[in-house]
Specification:
333 residues; binds NADP nicotinamide-adenine-dinucleotide phosphate; alpha/beta; seven-stranded parallel sheet; Rossmann fold; UDP-galactose 4-epimerase, domain 1; binds ligand F7E
Length: 333
């Protein structure tokens, strides 16, 4: 892309999993990339600067609207991707107020910052909405999976806060004619996933068990089922949503669902262990006051209208994560 026509993007959540994948994708596409980073000494700053040297970091916080206005004035973006959030469902029960402030009201702070700095209404806005808004209960679950039309029933302070973010995004689209959309994304994982999430916790432990660095893993409930895809595929879908003629919301999912037990089976097989049970202990500390039993998404609309389709399947996802963690952990032996 020629320098003069370079598109500009502002990302929130650059230090997280999706922020990293998205920055890499937008860089490949020739964007000039800006991202907000919070805190006076963010422990992930150095690694972020090393991995994404082409990203300009701006100090700002989703809880501080004036800092978001300044970030908009500095970045002058064509597109804003709001990926920042308190994103851990279990943690949201421990800090529900912070979750409401950042995951919920943070979306409004960002939308207002855009409105105040973009009088011509040109900026396109992506909101990281989530399958956690559906809640995974039997009564509202269509057989082929949740769609953009399904009813919501969030089961955690995180899900409730995200539902606010979803509705305020829709409201700004309808009220102010903003190009503001939600991607309703089902779980997506990969080598950049935080170890506090169950897939990476498992693949990291499996690698360490193989290398003799750990004897077992402690987990909560093993029966919940998730529609797990690869994060690299999902950021492509986010970008596609902002390239359309019309602002619309889309579900991104694989259309398959698997239990944590199935994930354990495949992950342990990667290191030659057929029976994972002796290596797994259940610990109630990792159970939640209310659980989301089963998530399954129907990505038909995104496939038809965006031409989006996930490339990595479930066994491929587990394999790439275990291989990545074996490579990282083997440097510690
Ligand atoms: P993640 O790895 O947990 O990253 C969350 C990001 O939010 C981090 O960069 C974090 O920065 C930032 N953040 C937290 N508090 C903030 C604040 N007050 N101000 C500014 N930034 C703040 O999450 P992810 O997996 O990449 O997910 C990206 C987004 O998609 C999130 O909104 C998540 O809720 C949503 N989502 C994720 C999935 C999934 O399966 N991954 C599915 C659906 C929706 P610090 O380093 O400063 O903490
Ligand atoms: O839990 C169970 C846990 O924390 C998955 C976020 O990105 O995806 C993610 O939310 C399942 C749950 O992801 C442990 O109870 C058992 O049933 O990996 P998770 P999540 O809650 O599905 C959605 C779509 C988002 O939007 C969120 O931001 O695994 N589980 N034992 C455990 N979970 C964790 N974390 N740790 C355990 O030890």
């Amino acid at each position: 892309m020629a320098e003069a026509t370079k598109k500009r993007a502002l990302i929130t959540g650059i230090t997280g999993q999706d922020g990293g994948h998205l920055a890499a994708l937008l860089h490949e596409k020739g964007y000039e990339i800006f991202a907000i980073i919070r805190g006076q000494h963010n422990p992930r700053r150095e690694a972020t600067e090393a991995e994404y040297p082409y990203v300009t970091l701006i100090e700002a916080d989703l809880g501080d609207q004036s800092s978001l206005i300044r970030a908009m004035q500095t970045a002058k973006p064509d597109e804003v991707y709001n990926l920042g959030a308190i994103s851990h469902v279990g943690y949201s029960f421990k800090d529900p107020m912070l979750t409401a402030d950042i995951t919920g009201k943070g979306v409004l702070n960002m939308l207002e910052a855009i409105r105040l700095t973009d009088p011509e209404n040109k900026v396109r806005f992506y909101q990281a909405s989530t399958s956690e808004m559906y809640g995974g209960l039997d009564y509202n679950r269509p057989e082929k999976g949740y769609t953009e039309e399904s009813a919501f029933h969030p089961r955690s302070p995180y899900g409730v806060a995200k539902l606010y973010g979803y509705w305020i995004t829709k409201n700004y689209r309808e009220s102010y004619d903003m190009f503001a959309v939600s991607g309703i994304l089902f779980n997506h994982e990969g080598e950049r996933r935080g170890v506090e999430f169950v897939t990476r916790k498992i693949t990291n432990a499996v690698a360490r068990i193989k290398l003799g660095l750990q004897t077992h893993i402690e987990l909560g409930d093993l029966w919940p089922q998730r529609d797990w895809g690869y994060a690299g595929d999902y950021v492509e879908g986010m970008w596609l949503m902002l390239q359309q003629d019309e602002p619309k919301d889309y579900v991104l999912a694989t259309g398959e669902t698997h239990s944590i037990e199935e994930f354990l089976t495949l992950a342990f097989k990667e290191i030659g262990i057929d029976d994972w049970k002796p290596y797994v202990k259940q610990n109630p500390a990792f159970m939640r006051p209310a659980e989301v039993d089963l998530l399954l998404g129907d990505p038909t609309k995104a496939e038809k209208e965006l031409g989006w389709k996930r490339k990595v399947d479930f066994p491929g996802l587990v394999k790439l994560m275990v291989e990545h963690d074996l490579a990282i952990e083997s440097t510690k032996v």
